[in-house]
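Lab channel / #folding
Pinned by the channel admin:
"Please post every new chain as: sequence first, then the C-alpha cells as a reply. Keep commentary short and put observations after the output so the thread stays searchable."

First post following the new format, from NK:
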Amino acid sequence: MLLFQLIAALLTLLITVASADARPLKIEDLDRIERVADPQLSPDGEWVLYSVDSFDAAADGRRNSIWMVRWSGGEPVPVSQAQSASMPRFSPDGRWVSFLREGQLWLLDRKGGTEARKVTDIRGGIGSYAWSPDSRRLAIGYREETSPPKDANGKETPEPWVIDRVRFKEDAGEGYIHNRIKSPRIYLYDLQAKSFEPLTAGGEFEETSPAWSPDGTRIAFVSNREADWQYSDYGDIYVAAAQPNSTPRRLTDFPGADREPAWSPDGRNIAFLQGSEPKYWMYNQTSLATVSVADGKVRELAASLDRDIGSPQFSADGRSVRFLVTDNRARYPAQVPLADGEAQRLLQGSYFVLGMSQSKDRIAALVSSDRSPAEVYALEKGKLRALTRHNESVLSGIDLVERESIDFVARDGERVYGMLAKPLGYQAGQRYPTILWLHGGPYSQDNWGFHN
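Reply from TO:
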C-alpha cells in the first residue's frame, strides 16, 4: 500500500511539473496550426490522400499542399507543395493523383512521375470534378466565363458588367455573376482526346454534384429545372447518359433541395439527402433516402433519426448506407443497413468528424476534438488510429483548455446542452468572471471540434 501511495505521489508531482512548464496559447501559435482536410482513400485502400492548408509568412497568405500517408502508418509523403493545390483525388485505376490548382486540373503519374502537369486551361475555372470508373474521363463542375471583346491589336477591352439575373452574386470568392459568367454546368473531359463538352444540352439551368454510375454509362447530378428556377431553392436528382449533350431524366420531385447523390455498387439505386420545404429550411433537417434508378421509387432510411446528416455513401458490399450525423455537439459516422433501416453509430465519444472516405471497406476519417485540430485517422471497429500528426509539434508544450459538458432545463422542461471552458489554472471554489455565449439553432450548434 505504501509503495502504491509513493508511486501515486510521484505521478502527481510529474503532472504538476509538466503543467507548470506548459504555456498558454499565443496568437502567433494560431498561424502555425495546419488545417488538414479532404482525406481520400486509394482504390486499393493502401494510401490516404489529403490536403494541408498552412500560413505562409513570407508571402503573407495561405498555402495549400497535397500529401499522402500509408494506411499502415508511417511518415506522410508530400505530393505537391504548389500554392493553392486542393481537392486531391485518386483515379479509380490508382495510376493518377489529381488535384485542382488555380482553378485548373493537374495530374501526377504514380508510375514514375515526379512533377504534376496541368491538363486543362479553361477560362472561368473548375469548381469540382469526379473520375469515370475507367479513369479515362472526368465529369467537371464548370462555370463558363466568356472573354471580353478585343481591339484591333488583340488586347482585351473592358466593358460594363450587365446584371440580368435574380441571383447576381455569391459568397466564397464568387463575387458578382454578370453577363459573361454562365450558370454552373457539368462538362465531360476526355483525357486522351482532350475534348471538353457539356453533359446536357441547352438551357441556363444550374447543375452540380456529378456522380458516375459504377459501369460508367450514366451520371447522376443535382439540378433545379423549374420554370422559375432563379426564384426557388429547389433541387432534384437527375440522371443522364455519360455522353455530351444528353437529355437528362428526373428521378426526384420534392420541395426543397435534394442533394449529394451516391450510387449503389450494383448501379440500381442512388442514396441522397432529401430536402424539405424551402421556407423552413433553417429549422428542418434533411432526411436520408434512396431512389430507384429504374422507376424513381423513393425509400426513406433512418426515419426516426431526427438529426442533421450529410455525406451519404454506400458500403462496399452495398448492404448499408454510411453517412455523418451531427448530434449534441458531436459529429460521428453512422450506417443504416438496408435490411432494417435503423441507424447504427460507428464511433462513440466527444469527437467532430469533418469528413470520411472509404475503400475496400476501410474508412479514413478527418477527426477533430476540443484539444486537437483535425487530423486523418483510420476508423477500425469503432476505434481511431492516428495516421497524421501535422500539429503535434506545434501544440507540444502548450496548455489548452479542456471543455466540459454542461446542461440546463428550460421553462418548458426541455434540456438544453452546452459547453463550459474553465480558465487555465482554475481552482475549485474560486469565483471567476464568466462569459455566457447564447445563440439559437438548430441551424448551427457548438461542437467538440478544435476552434482556432
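NK: The first strand starts at residue 23 and ends at 24.
TO: also worth noting, The longest helix spans residues 2-21.
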